[in-house]
């Protein structure tokens, strides 16, 4: 099927992890292979990214709809497996690297606006109190407050096999010895090709080891905050069309991992991630109407 937008594909490999990096990053985008941005869809603002203690943060507005924007910065196709609050945004499964995601062509940009419900519809992302998040409502509240993107390059197809050129025509037929030599050469060639075949996929034990390796990073929780933490809700249905395509990953491990944490501005200020910007209002000595008059009695 010809994709209308970046397409979906299920492949194999487990675990979700993320790579994360008191100042706003000017570009508001993260990633080397794929630029990742968080967009406030109600205001149209690209949320500034703040760096704090090796992690990236954005400040969400409670109630606002948002999108996770991906742009392929490479010259080949990439697959982005995206999770919000530890949940795969396409399948709704507890997020793992091997799951379905969005395939982007070189230079292509796509905004993921919600939890995918079908090829034509999503349930909009919106910032909400953590207990009302989709993850919490489906019994998975532990990872609320984090967006993750695992980026995979596409496997390059092997070069075409060039057929050997036939020997010049000869009137004489090969002897039995020559036939035996040719058969032996063909057999050796077959064994050599088999020896150069790609290694089999990693076993379940290897995959589980990678999942355990990533687990400590996922268990880190945000410091105490004065207000309820933000999560991502399961909002109203809206149109969002995709197609399907095949995609073979170059490696079982992601080529790039991006982790963005989010919470309300008030909580980021309370945690020291954002500076306190509140300034007492400056009083106006002449705030009233421009027409002169006399002082009335108080009511």
UniProtKB/TrEMBL annotation:
Q: Which UniProt keywords apply?
A: Signal
| Signal peptide feature range | 1-29
Chain positions covered by the region annotation Disordered: 157-252, 274-299
* Record's compositionally biased regions (Basic and acidic residues): 175-192
Comp. bias regions, Pro residues: 157-167, 278-299
Domain of life of the organism encoding this protein: Bacteria
**Biased amino acid composition, Low complexity:** 193-215
Q: What is this protein called?
A: Uncharacterized protein
The upper taxonomy is: Bacteria, Pseudomonadati, Pseudomonadota, Betaproteobacteria, Burkholderiales
């Amino acid at each position: 099927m010809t994709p209308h937008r970046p397409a979906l594909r299920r492949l194999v490999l487990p675990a979700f992890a993320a790579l994360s990096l008191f100042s706003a990053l000017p570009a508001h985008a993260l990633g080397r292979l794929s630029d990742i941005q968080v967009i406030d869809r109600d205001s149209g603002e690209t949320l500034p990214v703040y760096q704090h203690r090796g992690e990236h943060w954005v400040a969400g507005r409670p109630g606002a709809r948002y999108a996770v924007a991906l742009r392929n910065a490479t010259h080949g196709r990439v697959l982005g497996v995206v999770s919000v609050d530890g949940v795969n945004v396409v399948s709704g499964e507890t997020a793992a690297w091997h799951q379905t995601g969005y395939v982007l062509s070189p230079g292509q940009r796509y905004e993921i606006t919600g939890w995918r419900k079908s090829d034509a519809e999503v349930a909009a992302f919106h910032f909400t109190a953590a207990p009302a998040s989709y993850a919490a409502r489906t019994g998975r509240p532990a990872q609320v407050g984090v967006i993750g993107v695992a980026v995979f390059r596409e496997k390059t197809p092997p070069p075409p096999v060039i057929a050997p050129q036939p020997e010049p025509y000869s009137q004489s037929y090969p002897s039995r010895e020559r036939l035996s030599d040719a058969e032996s050469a063909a057999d050796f060639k077959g064994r050599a090709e088999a020896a150069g075949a790609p290694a089999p996929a990693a076993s379940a034990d290897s995959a589980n080891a990678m999942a355990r390796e990533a687990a400590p990073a996922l268990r880190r929780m945000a410091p105490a905050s004065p207000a309820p933490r933000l999560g991502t809700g399961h909002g109203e249905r809206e149109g969002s069309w995709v197609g399907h395509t095949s995609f073979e990953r170059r490696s079982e491990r992601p080529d790039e991992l991006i982790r963005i944490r989010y919470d309300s501005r008030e909580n980021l200020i309370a945690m020291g991630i954002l500076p306190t910007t509140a300034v007492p209002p400056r009083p106006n000595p002449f705030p009233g109407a421009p027409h002169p008059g006399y002082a009335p009695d108080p009511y």
